[in-house]
Design brief:
This protein is α+β, with helices and mostly antiparallel strands. It contains three helices and three strands; from the N terminus they run αβααββ. It has a three-stranded antiparallel beta sheet with strand order 1-3-2.
Length: 89
């Protein structure tokens, strides 16, 4: 499942929050972005795998890059990529 299966409204809001994080934080995880969107706007994708598409879109647009490091979130102990802001140099 990808971001294209989520609503247009969710896709736009999720991407905006990714960009906002990249403008304010040098390093962050998709989980950080997800929690912010859910807490502030109460927006949830149909499936959490849709976040991968948003992250890849931000990466393709050179908003973020992968650091190669991982954090372990409360999400079933799965690793969460740590992203580096390409906006904050």
């Amino acid at each position: 499942l990808c971001a294209s299966n989520a609503s247009d409204h969710w896709n736009k809001e999720a991407y905006k929050v990714f960009v906002m994080f990249a403008k304010k934080k040098k390093n962050f995880t998709t989980g950080d972005v997800r929690r912010r969107l859910q807490e502030e706007k109460q927006l949830f994708p149909h499936d959490n795998r849709a976040w991968g598409g948003i992250a890849m879109q931000a990466k393709q647009n050179k908003i973020i890059s992968r650091t190669g490091k991982f954090a372990y979130s409360g999400s079933h102990g799965r690793p969460d990529a740590i992203w580096k802001s390409e906006i904050l140099k």
